[in-house]
Amino acid sequence: MFGYPLPVRALAAAIVVLGSLRPAHAQTSIREVDFKNHVYPLSGPLLGHDHLQWLDLSGRRHFRLVEGKDSPRSPTFELSSVQYADVTGDGKEEAIVVIHLNTGGTQQSDYIYVYAFHNGEAALLAYCYTGDRAYSGLYGAYGRGGQLVVELNDPSKSQGDCCSTRFIRTKYAWRDGKFVPLGRREYGPIRLEEKPY
Q1: 155-165 confidence digits (pLDDT tens)
Q2: pTM for the complete prediction?
Q3: Cα-flanking dihedrals φ and ψ of residue 10, to 5°?
Q4: How confident is the model at residue 49 (pLDDT cuts 50, 70, 90)?
């Protein structure tokens, strides 16, 4: 029986195996990053928040989302939204990822992760948690005019622990490797039947 010598067949098999290890599709933009199946850092306490707090990027704890959730049990981190906008003023899109901490009870919290696209992958620029529901809970997060905009429920207009009738809007500029508040805070009405972000 004729065929290739054993070393040639072994080499061909090795080429096939190595070829299968390459990514099927290299990411070319932040919009191609799969944030539903992603690992996120975590710092600070999970609950008891009553304000927005930027967190340490070097935190050692992490959680992994699989199809948008980290666990079928409570508490559960769940992907709420992903938006794309230039929030650093460099003319390139970043991803604004909002993850909701669902405790299964009344206390809630949200995390905002901002990612840039660098060397073919998502690079975390900054992240924060927000307060709990009426007490500076997240109403919205998005990009506008090269800035990050965060809207939080106004505690001074709360109607019980769950809700507020007004939001506070703060604009953040990217300066020296962090987001800093810019300009005066703005206020707007909340219709209680609206769903945040």
Answers
A1: 999 888 889 99
A2: 0.83
A3: -65, -40
A4: confident
Domain boundaries, the chain: 26-189
Rg (CA), the chain: 22
Q: Are 123 and 30 contacting, i.e. CB atoms less than 8 angstroms apart?
A: no
In order of 100, 115, 165, 168, the CA distances from 162 in angstroms are: 15, 30, 11, 16
Spell out where 36-177 has E strands.
Answer: 39-42, 53-54, 61-64, 76-85, 94-102, 108-118, 121-129, 138-144, 147-153, 158-159, 163-164, 166-175
The per-residue pLDDT for 71 is 86
Q: Is the dihedral of CA 122, 128, 129, 135 positive or negative?
A: negative
SS3 label, residue 6: helix
At 178, phi and psi to the nearest 5?
-155, 160
CA of 114: how far to CAs of 6, 79, 99, 176, in Å?
52, 14, 11, 15
Q: What is the dihedral of CA 55, 96, 168, 183, to 10 degrees?
A: 80
